[in-house]
Amino acid sequence: MKTYNPSAIEKKWQEVWEKNETFKADDNSDKKKFYGLVEFPYPSGVGLHVGHIRAYTSLEVISRKRRLEGYNVLFPIGWDAFGLPTENYAIQTGIHPREVTDRNIKVFTQQLKAAGYSFDWSRTVDTTDPEYYKWTQWIFLQMFKHGLAFKDKSYVNFCNHCKVVLANEDSQNGVCDRCGEQVVQLEKDVWFLKIREYADKLLDGLNEVNYLPRIRLEQENWIGRSYGAEVDFKLKDAEDKLRVYTTRPDTLFGATFMVIAPEHPYLEKYHDRITNMNEIHAYQEQSRRKTEFERVQLAKDKTGVEIKGLTAINPVSGEEIPIWVADYVMMGYGTGAIMAVPGHDTRDWEFAKKFSIPIIEVIGGGNIEEEAFTDVEDGILVNSGMLNGLRVKEAIAKIIDYLKENNLGESKTNYKMKDWAFNRQRYWGEPIPIIHCPHCGMVPVPEEELPLTLPEVEKYHPTETGESPLANIPEWVNVKCPVCGEDARRETDTMPQWAGSSWYFLRYIDPRNKEAIASDEKFKYWGPIDWYNGGMEHVTRHLIYSRFWHRFLFDIGAVPFKEPYAKRTAQGLILGSDGEKMSKSRGNVVNPNDIIEEFGADTLRTYIMFIGDYEKYAIWNDASVKGCRRFLDRAWKMQEMVTDESGYSEKHTTLMHKTIKKVTEDYEAMKYNTAIAAMMSFVNEITSDGYITRDEFKTFITLLNPVAPHITEEIWEEMNFGGMLNQAGWPTWDEEKTVDDVIELPVQISGKVRGKIVLPKDADVETARKLATDDENINKYLEGKNIIKEIYVAGKIYNIVVK
Ligand code: ANZ
Ligand code: ZN
Q1: DSSP classification of residue 455
Q2: Which of 611, 512, 525, 532 is nearest to 124 (CA)?
Q3: Cα dihedral 341/342/348/349 (nearest 10)
Q4: 458 and 384, same structural domain?
Q5: How far is the CA of 270 from the centre of ligand 1 (A)?
Q6: Where mainly found (predicted)?
Q7: For the chain, how many structural domains are there in total?
Q8: What is the position in ligand 1's atom list of the atom closest to the CA of 333?
Q9: Which range is least confidently modeled, 172-176, 251-255, 580-584?
Q10: What is the CA(474)–ligand 2 centre distance, in A?
Q11: Nearest to residue 504, comparing CAs of 786, 12, 129?
C-alpha cells in the first residue's frame, strides 16, 4: 500500500475533475435537479479565510451527496467584486480597481480550487464585468420605470470618513459598516428604492419558504410591521392638525402630552408663534449630533423641550395638552409625532416623571405610580368615557370606528423598514443609468445602450463635496437627452455593492445569455434555489434586498418563480484559538492555505465540519486539526484490512447500517460534526477488529466522500472499486439492521452504575446476573451483601438492590 500523500493525490484529482468537467451542471437533463447556493465572496486582498471554508464546505457536502444520489446539481460560485476596500486600495496605490480585482479573483480561484470544491467553474459571474452589470442596470431601469426608484432630499446616514451615504442596513448600531466610525445624519439628494412597498409581500413570502426560525424572525423584525391608527389632534387657535401614529389608539384618553421629532416641519411653520425658539434651536442642534441608535435607546436619559405658544386638544377628552420636542421620537417613522400616554408607555412614563407631566391610568390593574403598565393584553379600559369596561382589543376596534366616523383619523399599518438608500458617491460601482435633462427631467438611458460602462478616471477620490469621481469627467457627464436631444447630464452616483448581489443567483442559471437574465426554460428547470447557506450578518440586508429584487422581477414577469430561495440556513462564526474574532491586529488569523499545505485539503474540510455545531460559533483548535488528519490516515490504512466475504460479521453489518443512517441523516440536518464522529468511531471499531469486507469498505468510502473527496477517490481507484466514486450512488440502510442484537447494558448496584455487561438484547435475568458476578469490578459491590431485589428489563435496565 502506498503512503497517504495528500498534496500529490489532491492535485491529481483536482486535475481529473477539471479535465472531465465532472461538476458541470447539465442544462438538458431529465434528472431531478438540485441548486445549492453559497454566498459568493468579495475577492478582497487578504484572500480566503476559514469562515469562507466553513460557509462553503457545508453545501459542498450536500452538493456532492446529491450527485451521488443521482441529482443533476448546480453548485456555482462567482465574485461580488464591487466594493470599497478595492477602491480604497486604488486610491492609495493608484492601481486601477479592475486590475486589483482581477488579481484578487485569481488568488481566490486558486484557493477555492485547492480546497477541492465541486463548483461548476464554467458559470462564474463577476458583478464588475460589464456583461454582468448590464443586467444590474437593466433591473434598476425596470424599477425606475415602475416608480420604485426615485431621488429625493432626505436625512441619510453619512460616514465622514468614507464620504459615503449608508443604508440603515449598512450602519446598524449607528456605526459605519466599512470603517466603524459613528455615522452622522445629513440632508442629501439620494436615490431610494421603494422596498417598503414590498414589505407585505416580503413578509407573506416567508410562509412559502423553509428558513431557519431565527432567520425568519430577524426578517420579520427588520421589516417590523405594526398595526395601529393615525389620529389628528387639533392645534389650539390654529388651522392645522397634528397627526400622530399610534399602535394603541385605545389609550387616547390617557394622552396627556404630545411629542414631535426635532425635525418636525411644524417647528419651522410655527416659528413666529413659538416663544422659546432659541431653546428649541439649541436642542435641534444637540440631537443632530446623535445617531438614530443613540436616540432610540430605551435606557438613556430622556431629554426634551416644551414648546411655548403651541398646544393641542385631545380629540376625545377635549383637554388642552402641551406639545414637546424630544429626540426619542423619530422623524422617519410614522408621522414624526406621537401622542404620549405615560400611564402605559415606558418611554412616555420616564419622560412624564422627569418633567412632572400628569399621568392618567386608562387600563386598570397596574401600579402607574411605580412604572408604566404595559402588559395589558387582557386589560380593561378605565377613565376612558365611551371605552370604559371594554377589553383592549374591543376598545381599539371601537375607537378606530369612532375616529373614522368623526373624521379624526383612520387605521394604519406601519413598517420599521425604510426605503433603501441606493447609491454611493464612488467610482467602483455600477453607474446609475439615468440622464438628467432640464426639460424632460430624469430620463432612463435607452436599454440598447446598456451596459453603461465606467469611464477611465485619473483619481478615484470622491470630490470634496462627497460627489462621485465620475462628476469630474465632463466628456462622460455631458450628454444629449435621449428624449429631446438637448444638453443634459448623466447621473454620477453609482450603485451600492448590494446591487450586484441582489440577483446573482439568477445569472448562474444562464450566465452568458445575451438576450435576458436567463432563458425562461432554464429558469423553469433550475428555479428556485433549493438550498441557500450563508452568514447570519446577511439576514437583514442581502437576504431582504435580494428577495425584494427577485419578487419585483417575478411581478414584471422576468422570472417565473416567486421566492428565490426555498430554504435558507446559516453557519456560525469561527473564532481564533484565543476565543476572539479572527483579526489581523490580534494575530489570531488562521490561513486555510497553510492548513492545506501542512495537512491537506481533506483534513481542512474534515476539521472545519467537525469543529462543532454548525450553527454556533466555534473556536479554532490546532490539536483537533491533527486529530482529523489522523482519522484520515486510519481510514487510508483500512485498505490493508479488506478481506473477502469470509470476513463477514453480524456486528459489522449492524455497525455499517447504523453508520449509513447516522451519516445520511446528520448531513441533511447540517450536523456534520456528529456525522464525522460516527465515521470516526466506525474506523476505530474496524481498526481494532482488523478486518472489513470489500462492500463495507466501499460503502464507508462513499459516506466519507462528500467531506473528503480526494482521499476517497484515490482509495476507490486503488481498490479497483470500478468507475468513479462520484458516480457510485448513495448507500441506503435497512432499519432493522441498525438495531444491535448484542448490547452494552449498564449495571446499577442500589441505584449507582458500577459497570457494563455485554449481552444479547433479549437475554434473561440469569444470564445478566451471571455476567455481572463474573465481572470483577461489578462483583466487588456484591460480595458479602444480600441481594434483596433485582429490577431487570431486557435491553433496558439492570438494577440490583443489596443490603
Ligand atoms: C400611544 C401609545 C400608548 C403607544 C401606549 C404605545 C403604547 P411600533 O410597535 O414600534 O410601531 N411612536 C410612533 N411613532 C413614533 C416615532 N416616530 N418615534 C418614536 N416613537 C413613535 O410602536 C408604535 C408606537 O411607538 C406608537 O404607539 C407610539 O407610541 C410610538 F400605551 O402611541 B404609541
Ligand atoms: Zn430632454
Answers
A1: P
A2: 512
A3: -170
A4: no
A5: 24
A6: cytoplasm
A7: 3
A8: 17
A9: 172-176
A10: 18
A11: 129
